[in-house]
Design a protein that fits this description.
Length: about 250
């Protein structure tokens, strides 16, 4: 991999989160988006003259993210660890009760699932192994925590909930495309399937919280007093005008 490709790979998540902070939303790239960016960067350097030839080439297969079961189970552990860290980062700052309840649930549920996976790996005598996917997931979560700490209180609720939805959607895709084809052990496969079900349930709950937050915001906006018309505030506080000469002398 050239220096140029490595530079692009390193900058992609950071640039994404810089834009997210500016917009007040948590924008997470998918787990393989860094690999895609590297491929696009390399393709751009080949020049425009060979574009017709590339159009005739068959589509390339998606790069393999997981090589073995130990790496697959590491993804589950990292996913749980990330949700715990992100929930702990926001639970004292969120202002919406639904968002706070979601953060608490994510902490408790993923603490339990992480312990369950660790116990299974110990029973199977499997040592989890890091991969490009698990490393990238950890980086995204650390960036998310930094983003949450930098946001204003009125932005934290929506940002956290949308971040939960995106990260869980990414995990569900990874389970389908990367973990399930690799994991053949019956016990490990059962754990992967259970995690997928839990993820689906959490996404449903998070979307309900997102709907509730949006409804609350709309109610506040609808009940807010209209802005004063131009000059109204200044006129209200101005002293009364003095009567014109001759007025008030009729008596």
């Amino acid at each position: 991999m050239t220096k140029r490709v490595r530079f692009s790979l390193a900058l992609l998540p950071a640039a994404t989160f810089a834009l997210a902070v500016a917009c007040g939303k948590s924008q997470r790239p998918t787990f393989d988006s860094a690999e895609q960016a590297a491929q696009e960067d390399g393709a751009a350097g080949e020049g425009a003259n060979d574009g017709a030839a590339r159009d005739e080439e068959p589509p390339q297969e998606r790069p393999k993210q997981i090589e073995n079961e130990a790496q697959a189970m590491k993804v589950l552990l990292v996913a749980a660890t990330n949700q715990i860290a992100e929930g702990e980062a926001v639970r004292s700052r969120v202002t919406n009760d639904h968002a706070r309840a979601l953060a608490e649930k994510m902490i408790s549920d993923h603490t339990a699932s992480k312990a369950r996976v660790e116990a299974l790996l110990e029973k199977k005598d499997i040592r989890p192994q890091s991969s490009r996917m698990s490393d990238f997931m950890s980086f995204l979560s650390r960036s998310a925590v930094m983003q949450y700490r930098s946001l204003n209180d009125d932005m934290i609720d929506g940002s956290y909930v949308s971040g939960v939805i995106r990260s869980l959607d990414n995990l569900r895709r990874a389970i389908d495309e990367d973990l399930t084809p690799i994991v053949v052990d019956e016990d490990l496969a059962a754990e992967v399937a259970l995690t997928k079900k839990e993820v689906a349930d959490h996404v449903i709950e998070a979307r309900e919280v997102e709907t509730a937050i949006n409804a609350s915001k709309n109610e506040r906006d609808a009940g807010a007093p209209p802005p004063p018309e131009g000059g109204a505030e200044e006129d209200a506080g101005a002293p009364p005008a003095e009567p014109a000469e001759g007025e008030g002398d009729a008596g």
